[in-house]
Fold:
Amino acid sequence: MSTVTLDKPVAAHTDRQRRTPGDALVAGTSHTMLIIWSVIVIVPFCWVLLSSFKTSKEILSSPFSLPAEWSFENYTSAWTKAGIGTYFFNTVIVVGTALVLVMLLGAMCAYVLARFEFFGRNFIYYSMLGGLTFPVFLVIVPLFFVLQGFGLLNTLPGLILTYVAYALPFTVFFLYAFFKTLPDDVYEAAMMDGAGEWRTFFQIMLPMAAPGMAGVAIFNFLGLWNQFLLPVALNTQRENWVLTQGMASFSSQAGYNVDFGALFAGVVMTVLPVLVVYLIFQRRIAGTVSTGTFR
Amino acid sequence: MSVSAADATLAGGLPGDNPWGAPPRRRRPKLTLDRALFMAVFLGLPVAVFVIFVVVPIGQALFYSLTDWTGFSPVMNFVGLDNYAKLLDDETFLKALRNNVLLTIVVPLVTLVAALAIAVVVTTAGPSTGQVRGLNGSGFYRVVSFFPYAVPAVVIGLLWAQVYDPAAGLLNGMLTGLGFDGFKDYAWLGEVRAAMPASMFVMIWANIGFYTVLFVAAIKGVPAEIYEAARIDGAGRFRTAISITLPSIRDNVQTAYIYLGILTLDAYVFMAALAPGGGPANSTLTMSQHLMNTAFKKSQFGYATSMGVVLALVTLLFAALVFAVFHFAGGRDKKGDVRR
Structure:
């Protein structure tokens, strides 16, 4: 493991050195471009937030004014009437369960593939890799009937299992690389001390892989929370809908009677939890395994 | 320090590719009962889920694509390659295929160039004295530009459909506000000329942040000494980016390119939210939308799965093409030049 990276902390006084004119020029242009980009990213979000407090009439007649009165009516109507509340809880249940399952199964599979030699190892690994590149569209029709065969079509457990199956290749792919880098010495020491394979995995190797697990879990969370195609095809009963389906139904309604206020409020409620998760965890994925064991 | 080596591993290209670490030691431990049971359970469960929900459906899809199955009756006739022959005459499908190819050429290219530029600026384009580092305040840009990735694609589509709205949309409001009165009531998603570029912009907007974070993590994995050496040798920022950074994170760029290609060859979610009907004169219709219509609206499941097979083949072809291009284009800067 390389220990000298750009992250290496540096003594503060080196920062105080003189800046050249070239530095100022590069910094100036870069900042300008990046600020323009940030505005393009942020402004639509602010506009949605602002619009979510307006009535539908206000949104259509004066799209840019401040709301006449700040009311949460859109939020309550989206949450109850448009069913966002139900969809929200469905999504939390489905994504939460699928995430735990896929991380566990993925870690198990990646661990065995990365650290044991056995017949068919490469075959399994490359099939998983292949599953990563195959478009979900190819299988959406047969999948429909596979789930129907198990009696799982239009049920939350069916959706959870499908989520797990389709997040698995990604999880295995990245955790494989991670388990490969874990030091052998620790494993051997655990074995020497008489811990069996099971204990070694759950008490030694899995905790050491925690940073990698956290990273993959975040990407899986985002991917599953945002999943749209699988539920649209496999989870068609309204009371089982997830958030993305509820949101999409806004756009497929006839243009005139769309409740725009509720739409914008719905967007805010869908986006907010994910943004919060991201903002909390983007600082959390710090530290590596090898710094913890060897330094 | 928010993006760490953990991220770098995440972004670390192909597995087993552990550029600066020690080569992993391999040994074949004795096969005890405990170990055999352990491996059976640990491998069996995930592989079973994978086989039932991924492998078996793929096999079935290949079979269905050779039949005239309607999906709701058990009757199906084996029709050989008829479905595929029909595809070649299906004007709508060919239009959709062309749209997907266009998307796959433009979107990954623009996204990756922009993401690379941002990643380079926030990691190594800082002051030329002292330690090699990024621009001041670069953390802010990194966090902000990742925002869109945290938003469901469906919601991004909805949001931009509102932004593009002819009368009440943000974009036309700003343009007319700035004095471009020609854009009053201009239907960005309703004009054949504008619909495709407008949709592409949304996909690019949605993806730049994610790939920026990926590249930032990869660049941070490059040993700082290499940058210091380049600086001592007199390399400027641009030269450093082209000659040091790019070759060092080549594998990541390749992986990213393939990922984006898969995304644009699918493109269903964005397009379904922006223009559910396929846009004016099918100008934004994608293969995936056509497939969904054919399967679930027209109940031609056999025919629809043959589209899925074509989509899969195009995806594999694309991945192979990217591998080939990177292999030949990368001939000059072999890994050994930069990596020790």
Chain A touches chain B through 122 residues (CB under 8 Å). Chain A is about 70% helix and 0% strand.
